[in-house]
Amino acid sequence: MDSGLLRQLIGEVGQTVIARSEHLTDLDQAIGDGDHGINMKRGCEAVLAEIDSIAAKPLPEALRAIGTQLVMTVGGASGPLYGTLCLSLGKALPAEPDAQAVAAAVATALAAVQARGKSERGQKTLLDVLGPVSDRLSAGNLNSLTELAEIANEAATATIPLQATRGRASFLGERSIGHMDPGACSLALIIETLVTSLEGSKK
Ligand code: ADP
Ligand code: MG
Description:
Elements: H1 3-19, H2 21-31, H3 36-49, H4 51-55, H5 59-73, H6 78-92, H7 99-117, H8 127-139, H9 145-157, H10 182-202
Helix pairs in contact: 1-3, 1-10, 2-3, 2-10, 3-5, 5-6, 6-7, 7-8, 8-9, 8-10, 9-10
The protein binds adenosine-5'-diphosphate and magnesium ion.
Adenosine-5'-diphosphate binds at residues 28, 32-33, 35-36, 39, 76-78, 81, 117-119, 125-127, 166-168, 181-184.
């Protein structure tokens, strides 16, 4: 992948998550401890501080560098999980992936995040976004990248009626019902931003 495009993707994702961090924190205030936006902002700032050296690397190494930064800086439950996501994508992806390679890498990363979180879909976590996105990629014949962003956003919305059975929100039992999961929201936001940025770069 071209280093200019990689820099643009990292920059836009980082800035968007930082811009929406208050919203993520509000969601985490409702069903967690109110730090998800703060955690993600800290991680994004650390990545953005290194953007020149990260974007100069081939895609797999860049993803591993991002994963390492996230593990070191995000904290909470989401830090190790987002870190695992990026590290395993970095291990599984070739430098110039095609659609099939992306689908296979995302499926591998999904399994790695599940193992790290000892969690599965349906528990009101970011897996409820990563799962459907991975399924759609593996099914192939994606009509457009925009479809993937729609799937991610719909999947995040679909966490609202779920009762959390993993993570801090699970402590609330039935009171976790009726709120969007903060991690599902941040992952959908990241996917939407990647899609918008990639679509924009084609023009
Ligand atoms: P913490 O819960 O430690 O305060 P954050 O607030 O940063 O960490 O992140 C919370 C998010 O992490 C949740 O909204 C959920 O999506 C995700 N999460 C928490 N625990 C797990 C888990 N075991 N498996 C998958 N995702 C999880
Ligand atoms: Mg939290």
